[in-house]
Amino acid sequence: MINKKILLIVGSLRKDSFNKQLAIFIQEFLNQYVSTEILDYKELPLFNQDIEFPTPQIVKEIREKFALADVIWFFTPEYNGHVSGVLKNLLDWLSRPISQNEFGIPNTTFNKPITMSGAAGKMKSIGSIKNLKEISSAMKMIPIDIDEVGIALSPESFQTNKLNLTNDDKNRLLNQAKALLSYINNLVKYD
Ligand SMILES: Cc1cc2nc3c(=O)[nH]c(=O)nc-3n(C[C@H](O)[C@H](O)[C@H](O)COP(=O)(O)O)c2cc1C
Q: Which of 78, 117, 124, 125 to mutate to test the pocket of ligand 1 (most atoms within 8 A of CB)?
């Protein structure tokens, strides 16, 4: 077990979200090697500068989890070619200064290593992964140089609400996870 933490962020609040099921599939694999957590942000309010300060308690807690994570792994659905509104709302909160007297990108997101995957309709989340790269780049997060995996949900998945991964999907996802573990292993300092 490596003393590193991966925060998994799902861009859907839906109880049976396929992206959450994807995150759980990856979490079960990663938990053999590192600690992980799926971020719960369903109580996060809509961003509004009128309520930005004093910082809402839930925003403080999410920032702390973000700051303590060594890597963030996003699981994004695709909404009209882009990320979902709830994920954009979370990112907008995280992009803001921590106190009223500070300006610019906060330390919590600056240089934060990230990777991403997504499950969507026939577009395989290609558009939302591209969009997430643009937003995260504006926030100065750093995408790790590994292949991102987009999954086209099968008709059976939509009928049963259960994620139906093909063997090829599973292999591509596990390869992404293994590449991430290699990256993390290189972060470990040995005395
Ligand atoms: C508002 C909305 C817009 C969508 N737009 C797209 C799209 O542009 N491309 C696509 O492949 N799927 C699209 N979908 C399908 C979703 O990506 C798919 O239902 C996905 O499973 C939702 O994620 P979740 O199961 O994690 O909630 C859209 C779904 C919704 C609700």
A: 78
